[in-house]
Amino acid sequence: MSPRNRQQLNQIRDERREQIKQTALKIFARRGYVGTKTSMIAAEAGISEGLIFRYFKSKDELFTTLVEELMEEAMKETGNVQFLPGSPYEQIKAFTENMLDENNKYAFMFIQRARKAETIPEGSTRILEQYPVDGLLRQLAPVFEKGQQTGDFIAGNPLKLMSWYIYILNSLIMEEVGQEEHGMPNVDFLLRVLKKQL
Questions:
Q1: Which of 63, 175, 170 is nearest to 126 (CA)?
Q2: What are the phi and psi torsion angles at 131 (to 5°)?
Q3: Rg (CA), the chain
Q4: pLDDT tens digits for 22-32?
Q5: Half-sphere exposure of residue 44, counting CA atoms within 13 Å on the CB side?
Q6: For residue 174, how many C-alpha atoms fall within 13 Å in the half-sphere facing its CB?
Q7: How much of the chain, in percent, has pLDDT values that exceed 70?
Q8: Most buried of 49, 74, 129, 173, CB within 10 angstroms?
Q9: Which CB contacts under 8 angstroms, 24+ apart, belong to 166-173?
Q10: By the 8 A CB rule, do 160 and 135 touch?
Q11: 96 membership: H or E segment, kind and range
Q12: Banded pLDDT at 48 (limits 50, 70, 90)
């Protein structure tokens, strides 16, 4: 096999693996670990169930792979908020827009469901324990504190206020409000919870 053909084959494999992960993410996010069968993932992805097992040994491995990749990405993204351009208000706004973005909401929904589930693979539980919610909030707290100093945000304990704010965002994502008649509230409306009123 020529190097070019090998490269094309590897690219096809990578794309198929990614397709399986993205499809699994949406189904796990909506139905949870217990409520998801690999046959559902296969049907949604338009592939045979056996093909899933060429890339992942089991449903457990697929689920745990998603947990690990999403938690690493969440820590990285949350840590980068303070380096985004603009004021602290604009940084938290960009973070919020990212959370509520159609392409990202399933990742947040998946992690929320995984954290609350009674039954998930043991490997997933260990990974989630390495990334406590407090750790993510501690990365956002300096941005919020800076916003308090500039007069953008209300006074109070930054960790507590950010915790409540993230809870509101997660609740909206979990309820999939965006699919209802009135749609998802816009980001400026949500930020009023944190914004200091003049």
A1: 63
A2: -125, 70
A3: 19
A4: 999 999 999 99
A5: 17
A6: 14
A7: 94
A8: 173
A9: 166/133, 166/136, 166/137, 166/140, 168/193, 169/96, 169/99, 169/100, 169/108, 170/108, 170/112, 172/100, 173/99, 173/100, 173/105, 173/108, 173/109, 173/112
A10: no
A11: helix 88-100
A12: very high
**25: helix, coil or strand?**
helix
Residue 76 pLDDT greater than 80, yes or no: yes
Is the model's pLDDT at 177 over the cut of 60?
Answer: no
Predicted TM-score of the model (pTM)? 0.86
d(CA 153, CA 132): 25
Chain centre distance of CA 157? 25
Identity (one letter) of the amino acid at 144?
F
Residue 132: both structure tokens together: 């406590």
The first and second tokens of residue 112, run together, are: 């929320």
Spatial contact of 82 and 142, defined as CB atoms under 8 Å apart: yes
Phi, psi torsion values for 195, nearest 5 degrees: -75, 135
Q: What percent of the chain lies above the pLDDT cut of 90?
A: 66
Q: In sequence order, which residues have a C-beta less than 8 Å from that of residue 48 and are 6 or more positions away?
A: 42
* Distance between CA atoms of residues 101 and 179, nearest Å: 13
